[in-house]
Design a protein that fits this description.
By secondary structure, this protein is mostly helical. About 80% of the residues lie in helices and about 0% in strands. The protein contains 3 helices and no strands. The longest helix is centred in the last third of the chain and has 27 residues.
């Protein structure tokens, strides 16, 4: 059973990574923030005994917003935006 799940997991990972090519810095920061926030939210709620999917969703939203804001501030400092 475990062996049959390896190929679909590898293919899904490849599709996810290939979908990230050609993004600008704002899109990359937003995506990175969302991914990091989802991970932190899931781990945090797992440790406290809450709803893991709820924590991941909230963390993803907060992380994506933080990544977006971080990139906008960084671009302002460089004079790009």
């Amino acid at each position: 059973m475990r062996r049959t799940m390896i190929l679909p997991a590898v293919l899904a990972g490849g599709l996810l990574v290939s979908g990230c090519t050609g993004m600008n810095s704002t899109e990359q920061s937003t995506l990175s923030g969302g991914a990091i926030g989802a991970g932190v939210g899931a781990v945090g709620t797992l440790m406290t005994g809450g709803c893991v999917s709820c924590g991941a969703a909230i963390g993803a939203g907060v992380g994506a917003g933080a990544g977006y804001i971080h990139d906008k501030i960084k671009n302002e400092e460089k004079g790009k935006d």
